[in-house]
Every structure is written in C-alpha cells, then in structure tokens.
C-alpha cells in the first residue's frame, strides 16, 4: 500500500526557508514566497517580506508572466486531442488573414515559427493592450525574422496568435475557455486574468539605492495568452503536479508528456536549455526540470518540476529584477530531492505470466551485437544493448499485435514478431532491422544470407 505524502523533515524545512530568505535579502525583493510539492500535493511553503509581520502566504496572488504560456499550450493540446486541429496544421487553416498563416501550430508552440520576439513599440508589458486592438498591431509590418522551423526564437506575439486560435476554434474568449477547461477542473480558484485580493503590488527597486518605485499593472489585451495571469504558490503547485502526472479532466498523461518533449534543438552553446510545447526544459546539475519562468514589470516567477524526483517548486516575488526565480525554484527542488530522495515503489511480480511474451525475453542479436529484450511490469517491452552504447527503446503493444516504440532511436517505429509456418518465432523485425536468437545462425532469416560454411578460425581460412 502506498503511504500518503509525508511532511518534510525539520532540517529540510529549515534549508528551504534559508534559501528563500537569502533570495529575498540578496535579491532585494519587497516580498518573496516559495512552495514545494511532492507526491501530488504541496508539502511546504515559506515567505519573506520587507514589512515585518506582513509576509505573504501561499494564497497571495502574484503576476506570473510567461508561465501563462504553458496554460495557453494546454488549451491548444486539448483542441488537438479533440480532433479539432492538428499540430502540423498551418495557422491560416484556423485563423486566416494574419499574414503569417503558413507557420504551423507546433512551430508557434515551440517558438520555432521565426516570428519576432516582441511587438512593435511601445513596450507592450508597460502599456495597455488597448494600444494593440488588432493582431496586425501585435505583429507589426515585419513579424517574420527567420525561416520557420529552422531555429528556436522566443516569440511573445506567437502566443498571442495561439490565444486567438483558441478563441476562433472555441468561439469564446481565451480567458473564459481557460477558466472553464483548465482552472476549474484543476481547482485553481486563485488563478485569474486580473488580480483578486489578497495580491501583491509590483515594485521596481533602484539598482544603486534601497528605494522602491511602484510599477504599472496593465491589462495586456490581445497579448494576455503570453503573460496575463495572476496566481498563487498553492495554485501553481497544483498545476505543477498536473504537468508531471496529467489529469484526464484536462489532458492525459501522454499529452502532458508531449508538452515536456523538446520541440526544436537548442541554440549552439545552450545545450542545457530547451523548449517543448509551451514549456521550458533545463538541465540543472544532474536533473532535468520542466516548467516555465515568467516576468512582467514588478514581478518575477518560476515553476519547475523534476518528474523523476516527483518534486516541484514555485517561487514568486514582487520585484522587476533581482532574484532569479527560476534558479531559486530549481534550488528548492534540489534541497528536497537530495535530502529526502524519492522512495521507490516496492517491486511486485506481474499478476499473471504470458507465455508468448515470456518466450520473447532474453538475448537477441542485431548482426553480432547482443541486445536484451525485457518484459516490463506495465506489459511493455524494452530492447537495449547489452554492452557499450547502442540503440534502445521501450515498446507498447498495438491492437494488431505489433509493438510501437515509445522513446529512443525506435520512437514511433514498429517491432514485429515474425513467426515460422509452425508458429515458432523466427526473428524480430524492428524498423526493418532483423534481430535473431543467434549471431548469424545458418537457418536465420538474415538479409543477404549467411555463409554456408559458418563461423571459422584463422586456420580455417584458405586463400
């Protein structure tokens, strides 16, 4: 029986508090709140403030900036899962007249559409959205800077287009669709497009003096799908759990995994950073983190999930610059995962043995390279090299009895069990490659055939 999540150890809680206290002090943030989720729920939250006795809590709203993009991506994946669009569809098919309609939905989600990073002036984050009432005002006269699909180039207007796409397909506002299809099902009652008390005010801190200036809080209009939302540490912990596990009320685990899959290669020299579909991917030490960071004048935010460790962290602060919320959130994950590593589920045998699958397990040979085929507890197969590097993948059974690759070199490829007329297994066909029980056995179905004289030693070789 799986136990319920345990509270963190006192030493871990103190280390977490120390990290956010140092971040608030060194980053000179008026206030900063952090939270950690583990095993499906929030297990720790802490806060620091410049006003004694008035620290925020996990229910205090902050603006989350570009973390909003991940919510927009979830809405687009829902449309795909319902069959209302394909990620390879050109934007023009569903949102005609933009002037950039040949770029695909997937390219917009992964920031590879080649669109400009920002809108034409004035600076959109500090001005009302009413200054950009039409998509043409958001895109400007030269919206495309790079060939589509060739490189990662972060684009805020690209997510405005995705928000407008959601509105066009659903026939309702982005805000309404988000509330109905994501926020309410995930019980994110304290996430909204406009601030709802209690909420923090946004501040700029002078770079050379300990004085502050209030920042404007604008309604971003059409740019809302790129950065409008306000949320709390508690709500974002719920969202982080969703990004790890999925929720059938919103998106399946398979679709959420797709959000977390790299969409395009990173820039040269930036191999520790990548982007999925509306999610940022980073390598932090020896961990892979998925989530997003965000900022708008007066606010910085960070949300990361380590799926392998089953730990997530959120950091929110009400300051334009200073504390790097993404780094702090990554550190919170490391503190918990290192001090209290995830306890593996107990091993259990399968409920029943399938003789046909059992007979497939063991060594196989691709030419002379030895591979091992395992039958996993989730009834999948795993093929991998037995020595050195090589091609390996997990496979899941299909309705026709063949197997489809889930990851690695053979992702999407077919593993087929080829049988002889008497029903015995001849070989495995994996994406047209033949795997046999013996290395080049004389009766094996090896393309090109096997020399009839068989294996030989040096003395058997005659000129």
TrEMBL record:
<dbReference type="Pfam" id="PF24491">
    <property type="entry name" value="DUF7586"/>
</dbReference>
<feature type="domain" description="DUF7586">
    <location>
        <begin position="354"/>
        <end position="437"/>
    </location>
</feature>
<dbReference type="InterPro" id="IPR012338">
    <property type="entry name" value="Beta-lactam/transpept-like"/>
</dbReference>
<dbReference type="Pfam" id="PF00144">
    <property type="entry name" value="Beta-lactamase"/>
</dbReference>
<dbReference type="InterPro" id="IPR056008">
    <property type="entry name" value="DUF7586"/>
</dbReference>
<protein>
    <submittedName>
        <fullName>Beta-lactamase</fullName>
    </submittedName>
</protein>
<dbReference type="InterPro" id="IPR001466">
    <property type="entry name" value="Beta-lactam-related"/>
</dbReference>
<dbReference type="InterPro" id="IPR050491">
    <property type="entry name" value="AmpC-like"/>
</dbReference>
<feature type="domain" description="Beta-lactamase-related">
    <location>
        <begin position="20"/>
        <end position="333"/>
    </location>
</feature>
């Amino acid at each position: 029986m799986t136990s319920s999540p345990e509270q963190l150890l006192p030493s871990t809680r103190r280390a977490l508090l120390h990290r956010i206290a140092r971040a608030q002090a060194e980053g000179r943030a008026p206030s900063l709140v952090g939270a950690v989720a583990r095993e499906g729920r929030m297990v720790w939250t802490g806060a620091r403030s410049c006003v004694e006795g008035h620290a925020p809590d996990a229910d205090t709203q902050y603006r989350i900036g570009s973390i909003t993009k991940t919510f927009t991506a979830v809405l687009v994946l829902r449309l795909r899962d319902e069959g209302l669009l394909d990620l390879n569809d050109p934007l023009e098919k569903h949102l005609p007249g933009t002037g950039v309609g040949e770029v695909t939905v997937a390219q917009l989600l992964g920031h590879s559409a080649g669109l400009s990073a920002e809108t034409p002036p004035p600076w959109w984050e500090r001005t009302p959205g009413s200054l950009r009432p039409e998509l043409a005002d958001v895109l400007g006269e030269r919206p495309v800077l790079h060939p589509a699909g060739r490189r990662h180039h972060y684009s805020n207007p690209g997510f405005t287009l995705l928000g407008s796409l959601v509105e066009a397909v659903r026939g309702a506002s982005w805000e309404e669709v988000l509330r109905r299809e994501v926020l309410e099902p995930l019980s994110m009652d304290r996430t909204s497009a406009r601030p709802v008390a209690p909420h923090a005010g946004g501040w700029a801190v002078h770079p050379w003096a300990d004085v502050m200036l209030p920042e404007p809080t604008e309604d971003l209009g059409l740019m809302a799908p790129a950065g409008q939302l306000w949320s709390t540490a508690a709500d974002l912990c719920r969202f982080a759990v969703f990004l790890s596990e999925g929720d059938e009320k919103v998106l399946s685990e398979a679709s959420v995994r797709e959000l977390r899959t790299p969409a395009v290669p990173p820039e040269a020299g930036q191999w520790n950073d990548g982007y999925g579909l509306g999610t940022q991917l980073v390598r932090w030490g020896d961990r892979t983190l998925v989530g997003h960071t965000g900022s708008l004048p007066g606010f910085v935010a960070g949300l990361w999930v380590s799926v392998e460790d089953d730990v997530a962290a959120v950091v929110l602060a009400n300051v334009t610059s200073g504390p790097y919320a993404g780094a702090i959130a990554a550190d919170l994950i490391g503190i918990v995962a290192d001090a209290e590593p995830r306890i593996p589920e107990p091993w259990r045998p399968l409920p029943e043995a399938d003789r046909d699958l059992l007979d497939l397990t063991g060594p196989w040979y691709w030419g002379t390279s030895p591979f091992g085929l395992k039958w996993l507890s989730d009834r999948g197969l795993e093929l991998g090299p037995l020595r050195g590097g090589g091609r390996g993948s997990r496979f899941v059974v299909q309705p026709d009895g063949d197997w489809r690759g889930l990851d690695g070199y053979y992702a999407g490829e077919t593993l087929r069990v080829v049988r002889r007329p008497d029903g015995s297994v001849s070989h495995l066909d994996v994406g047209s490659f033949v795997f046999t029980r013996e290395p080049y056995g004389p009766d094996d179905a090896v393309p090109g055939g096997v020399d009839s004289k068989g294996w030989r030693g040096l003395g058997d070789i005659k000129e």
